[in-house]
TrEMBL record:
InterPro entries for the chain: DGOK, DGOK_C, DGOK_N
Domain of life: Bacteria
GO terms for biological process, alphabetical: D-galactonate catabolic process
The protein's name in its UniProt record: 2-keto-3-deoxygalactonate kinase
Matches recorded under CDD domains: ASKHA_NBD_KDGal-kinase
Molecular functions per Gene Ontology: 2-dehydro-3-deoxygalactonokinase activity
Gene3D superfamilies reported in the protein's UniProt record: 2-keto-3-deoxy-galactonokinase, C-terminal domain, 2-keto-3-deoxy-galactonokinase, substrate binding domain
Keywords assigned by UniProt, alphabetized: Kinase, Transferase
Species annotation: Roseiarcus fermentans
Keyword Kinase attached: yes
Length: 308
């Protein structure tokens, strides 16, 4: 059987890493490149040269292929700042606001981010996750959770991104562990697979977020220090306990706005497994999102933009 021809170069360019895909019009990945040349590592004015270094072989071999890039490459600190499309938004609305830049005579189209507003008027934004969500939505997801430094909870309505909310759980965990007294035990503790200490933290965090025991999360956080200090938690388990505490609180808080659907969890395997374990501890059904979401989402946007 003859292999389908290349039809798209898709680039998922985040803060820390970049992944590029050479794809057919049907979504088959013919080749892929992964690099640590994330946006945070690229000097101002060097994006075109970095792009050329990463995918120059593809550009030379297929000089007419469209190029689509998503992620923090379109941020204020990226190649050029792309706009935010307000939610609700589907792939057609996102594709209508692509931003064009030039690299060695080739046009590169940058996918815009998304914005929305909570009921109390607080603005929220995402950049890069929207493409992943579009890729997951093609598989029928209605609620997507994307763990990370800034975890996103996203409601999907028939492949339209209806609304979302950001929780700074990952960044808060890193800040508490690395820069506070209550994180001192967690700082030296190994992080293993989620186990008993993690589950204990999830239940305590959920209870605190519900106000069930008369105190909230701010008071419960001191347990990450006081429990190992008094021998009621092994020092080696302090990191898992703190992780569970924050994730458990996040789930309860998020469920106030996203109460019904069973979530699909996407993202780095180890972190996604923590969230799946936390949902299980709380008696909720959750599943892992299918892999390859970013590549599928780039293809969805490319089709809506008439690039294929």
């Amino acid at each position: 059987m003859t292999e389908a021809p290349a039809a798209l170069i898709g680039v998922d360019w985040g803060s820390s890493n970049v992944r590029a895909y050479l794809m057919t019009g049907g979504g088959t990945i013919l080749d892929a490149i992964a690099s640590a040349d994330g946006v945070a590592t690229v000097a101002p004015g060097a994006f075109a040269a970095t792009f050329r270094r990463l995918v120059g072989g593809w550009l030379d071999q297929w000089p007419a292929l469209p190029v689509l890039a998503s992620g923090m490459v379109g941020s204020r600190n990226g190649w050029r700042e792309a706009p935010y499309v307000p939610c609700p938004a589907d792939a057609r609305a996102i594709a209508a606001d692509l931003l064009a830049v030039e690299a060695a005579g080739r046009r590169v189209l940058i996918v815009p981010g998304l914005s929305c507003e909570s009921e109390d008027g607080q603005p929220d934004v995402m950049r890069g996750e929207e493409v992943e969500i579009l890729g997951i939505a093609t598989q029928g997801a209605r609620l997507v959770v994307l763990p990370g430094s800034h975890c996103k909870w996203v409601a999907v309505d028939e492949e339209e991104i209806a609304r979302f909310q950001t929780f700074v759980t990952g960044e808060l965990f890193a800040a508490l562990r690395d820069h506070t007294l209550i994180g001192a035990f967690a700082r030296t503790a190994p992080m293993g697979a989620p186990g008993e200490a993690f589950a204990r933290g999830v239940l305590r965090g959920a209870s605190a977020a519900q106000g069930a025991d008369g105190s909230g999360l701010i008071g419960a956080l001191f347990g990450a220090r006081s429990l190992p200090l008094t021998g009621k938690l092994a020092e080696a388990d302090a990191g898992d306990y703190l992780s569970g505490l924050l994730i458990g609180a996040e789930i309860v808080e998020a469920r106030r706005r996203f109460p019904r659907e069973n979530p699909q969890v996407a993202g780095a395997s180890a972190l996604a497994q923590r969230y799946l374990a936390a949902f299980a501890v709380l008696g909720e059904r959750a599943s892992a999102a299918p892999p390859g979401a970013a590549a599928r989402g780039l293809l969805v946007v490319a089709r809506q933009a008439g690039l294929l």
